[in-house]
């Protein structure tokens, strides 16, 4: 069920979101706190309208939000946050002219109000 939202500034060089999303999914699954890998849904958005500080042009950012169903303890959420930050650090292409801020934010979704169903393909007759 976890959802990963990856946002990044458009001034990053050689940044390709698909391998980074895959690395984040793999890191989250490797924590053992997600039972089925296909339950992880991730997506990326490149931000072209942003401001860092007072407008310094040598700054960039990558921000990951991971939404989890409520009920996990602080230690679990901390481990997930740390592992995703590590995966992000390992997969980020080297930036020679930018200082890059990497952030991971863990959000809780109230289990009682989250609904999910899976629609499987039907066979054509």
TrEMBL record:
GO terms assigned for molecular function: 5-carboxymethyl-2-hydroxymuconate delta-isomerase activity
InterPro entries for the chain: 5-COMe_2-OHmuconate_Isoase (IPR004220), Tautomerase/MIF_sf (IPR014347)
Pfam families: CHMI
PANTHER family: 4-HYDROXYPHENYLACETATE CATABOLISM PROTEIN (PTHR37950)
Name of the protein this chain belongs to: 5-carboxymethyl-2-hydroxymuconate isomerase
Lineage: Bacteria, Pseudomonadati, Pseudomonadota, Gammaproteobacteria, Moraxellales
């Amino acid at each position: 069920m976890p959802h990963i939202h990856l946002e990044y500034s458009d001034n990053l060089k050689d940044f390709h979101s698909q391998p980074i999303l895959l690395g984040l999914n793999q890191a989250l699954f490797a924590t053992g706190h997600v039972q089925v890998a296909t339950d992880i849904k991730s997506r990326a958005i490149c931000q072209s309208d942003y401001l860092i500080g007072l407008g310094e042009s040598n700054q960039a950012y990558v921000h990951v939000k991971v939404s989890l169903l409520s009920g996990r303890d602080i230690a679990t959420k901390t481990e997930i946050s740390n592992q995703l930050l590590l995966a992000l650090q390992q997969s980020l292409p080297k930036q020679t002219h930018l200082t890059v801020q990497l952030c991971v934010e863990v959000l809780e979704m109230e289990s009682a109000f989250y609904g999910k169903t899976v629609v499987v393909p039907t066979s054509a007759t």
